[in-house]
Amino acid sequence: MSDNVKITVNDNGPYRVKGDVELVDAEGNAFETKKMISLCRCGHSSNKPFCDGSHRQIGFESEPRAE
C-alpha cells in the first residue's frame, strides 16, 4: 500500500483528498474520514470542514493553477 496522499484543487469546487489522512480540529479532535474526502473551499458548507455542494448554489469561482 502506498503512503502517498493526493490533494486536488477542483475548479470552482472543493479540495479532493485521496489517501489515508488524519483530519483534526484546532483542539486535536479527529474527524471521521474515508479514503477520499472533499474539503470545503467556499466557506458556505453546512458540514464544515467537508464539502456539501453549497459552492454550486452560491456560484463559487476559483481556478488556481500551479506555476
From TrEMBL:
Name of the featured protein: CDGSH iron-sulfur domain-containing protein
Iron-binding zinc finger CDGSH type domain ranges (all copies): 12-61
Domain of life of the organism encoding this protein: Bacteria
Keywords: 2Fe-2S, Iron, Iron-sulfur, Metal-binding
Pfam family of the protein (one): zf-CDGSH
RNA-binding is among the record's keywords: no
Organism: Lentibacillus halophilus
InterPro entries: FeS-contain_CDGSH-typ, MitoNEET_CISD
Organism placement in taxonomy: Bacteria, Bacillati, Bacillota, Bacilli, Bacillales
